[in-house]
Amino acid sequence: MLIQVPITVIINKIGKRNSIILGNISQVVSLLILIFSNNLLFLYVREFFSATAFALKTVAESGILRDSVPKSKIRGDIYSRIFGRGVSWYSKAAAVSIVISGFLYVINPYIPIVLCLAVAVLATLISICFNNTEQLEENKVEVDKTFKGSIKDLKEGFKIILKSSRLKSLFLMNGIIWGLICLLATYYATLLKDLNITAYYIGIIIAMLELMVGVGAKKANWFNTKFKNKSLTLIGLLISFSTAVVGASVIFKIPFVFLMVNILVFYFLTYILKGIFTILKARYLSNFTNSKNVTKIFAVNGIAVSIGRAGASYLGGQLLLYMPIEHAMLCIGIIFSIVVLIMYRLVKNKVGMLGTNPA
Known about the structure:
This protein is mainly α. It has a single domain (4-132, 149-347), classed as MFS general substrate transporter like domains (Growth Hormone, Chain: A), CATH 1.20.1250.20. 81% of the residues lie in helices and 0% in strands. Helix 7 packs antiparallel against helix 11, helix 7 runs parallel beside helix 12 (294-322) and helix 9 crosses helix 11.
């Protein structure tokens, strides 16, 4: 979260293509440090490079994809379809890599890391072949590229963005839902361990969940067409409800077979919704962007989801100090259901696909 603002300045200064290249190089460096690290200080440095890579790539990749889609009335639809296909393929690759890395880790813990390094190097080489999409945008506005000028431009951009009630509503809802999703990733694995599910089967379940993200990504446009501005609210409520049901089913000690079926059904539902949310979040944000503000909008959203993740993690951690995981999941489900409903009342008809520029 703290690195998001300086990262935005860097992207504005060197461009999206070069930022992606720099992000991939940072990822390569972080993996090299991980391989050769022998003390805690090296791991801290590694986390810095990893966070830098994530921040650069998250903002710049979304921006460069948006810039690459031709201007038209259906630009948002085209953007979400391309992004959805990418997420779908990513989910399949993630599922396969989780299974393979589990086997390779038993042979040698360093083999999966070395393979990740090879993929990061390949990604760096591929990103070098990208075009500067800033040159593809018509009526490009010249801006001051000095550090001082970039900071001034960034402040002015943030002020304009935060004046938009629709964008602020979207940032808030994104932060809440993403915070819940990230917390549940930890809760789900913890619950399976508490139920004495072996690491082997947990790995298979996690791989299957990644595939569900891809399934959801393909259904995002259908979901958006059917539920329109209520889409994000419905996603938040369904995930919250699933969490509460899983927690309650463990508390009431239903037969183990039925318990596991119930858990897997709602786990799969949550990750399908995660895939839908990932695409719709990017689509709704892209509908507010132009060549000048795209980096800033995705950066502010990055800050919002980071705050949401930190808040949800803190709440989830505090609950576990006073109760077992199943009771914590029931509480989280109820709390986030209430929060999402309150947000819906506050931002009704403001969160959705409408809008082309902050206003």
